[in-house]
Amino acid sequence: MKAAILREYGQPLTIEQVELDPPKAGEVHVKIEAAGICRSDLHFMKGEARINLPAVLGHEGSGTVMDVGPGVTGVKPGDHVILSFVPYCGRCHFCLTNRANLCDAHAATAGVLFDGTTRLHKGDQRITHMGKVACFAQEAVVPETGCVPVGKDVPWAQAALIGCSVTTGVGAAMFSARIAPGSTVAVIGAGGVGLNVIQGARLLNASKIIAVDIGEGKLEFAMSFGATHTVNPTIQDPVEAIKKITGGVGADYTFEVFGSPQTALTAYNAARKGGTVVIVGLAPIGDVAGFDLVSMVRQEKTVKGSYYGSTRPAVDMPTMVELYRLGKINIDDLVTRRYKLEDINKAYQDLDGGEIGRGVITQF
Ligand code: APR
Ligand code: ZN
Questions:
Q1: Ligand 1, closest atom to CA 259?
Q2: Number of domains the chain is built from
Q3: Strand order in the sheet with 125-126
C-alpha cells in the first residue's frame, strides 16, 4: 500500500509503497478515509519532536474497518471509526483512575503497537507508527482500543478532526480548565487546535474570549468560532492588550496553543491573579519557559499541561460527535482545504505558511 514516509528530519515526506502486515490479536485493519494536517506531525518533520525513523506520521484520522484480528469484539468490518492516538491498555494506574489519555502501556510503546512490534515495514526495514495511528497512508493497523466507532452520518473529514484537534481543543476548555460560565479567556494561537479551544470556551459560556495570533486572517476566522476580541502580537504587546480588554486584571483562563517558550510566557503573564494557564502546544523537546516564581506564589497562578484535552478518548469523542450533531460545535467550517496524499508536503507548507482552518487529506 501507499504511505507518506518520514526518513530524515528536515526532509520532505516521501510517498512510497510499503507492506502492512495483517492485524494480530486485539488489532484492527482500517482503510483510511481522512487524515488531518496537524502541527504535531510537523514537530516530528522538523525534528522538534522525536520518533524512530523511518516513520509513518498522521494521528488525526478516520476510516472504515476492513478486518479484525483475534479477540476483537468492539468493531467489525464495515464500521466507521475515529482513530485515537492514545489507545488504552485498561489496566495501568492511569487507565484505572479515569485518565486514559496518560496510559502507561501506550507511553512505553511509542511508535510501535502494544506488543512492541510494527506492522509496517519495507522489506526487512521496520517502519514506526506515529501514535499507533500512522494515518498518512492508505491503510493502517491499530489497536482495538484506538478505534472509536462513529455513526455513518458523520462525514469523514469531520470524524478525523474529532480524532485530534476538536477533542484536544474543546477538551482543554472543558476538562483541563473546566472554564466557569462568565469567565474571561485568552487563547494564544488560533490554528486548528486553538479554534477548538475558542469554540469550547463559547460552549461553556465564557464571557470575553480573546484570540491571539500573528495572522490577521486567523484572527478574523477566530471571530466566527466565538472569539469576541482579537490581539495581534506583531502589532501590540499581547499581555498589555489582554489586560486592557479584561479591565486591567488579565484573563481567568489562558491557553497556549502554538508550542514555544515565548507563547507560554505570554499565556502565563496574561493570566489574572488566581488564574489558570493551560499549556496545550508541544514546544520543541528540551525547551523551557521561565515563569516568575514570586508572581506564581503571590498571585496563586495555576499552570497545567493538557494532553488530548485531558479527555478519555473512548468516552469523550462520542460526546464531541453529539455536540457536533447538535450544532453546538462547528467542525464543518474548520475544514478549509482538502488534499491528495501525494500533496502532503504542500499541505504542510500551507499549514506553516499561515493558511486558516484545517487541511485534511481525503484522497489516498
Ligand atoms: N503568538 C501567537 N500565535 C502564534 C505565534 C505567536 N508568537 N506564533 C505562531 N502562532 C500561531 C500560528 O499563526 C497558528 O495560527 O499559532 C497557531 C498554531 O496553529 P497551527 O499551526 O494550526 O497548529 P495546531 O495544529 O493548531 O497545533 C497547535 O497544539 O497539539 C499541539 O502539536 C500541536 O504544538 C501544536 C499546537
Ligand atoms: Zn494533532
A1: 34
A2: 2
A3: 19-20, 120-122, 125-126
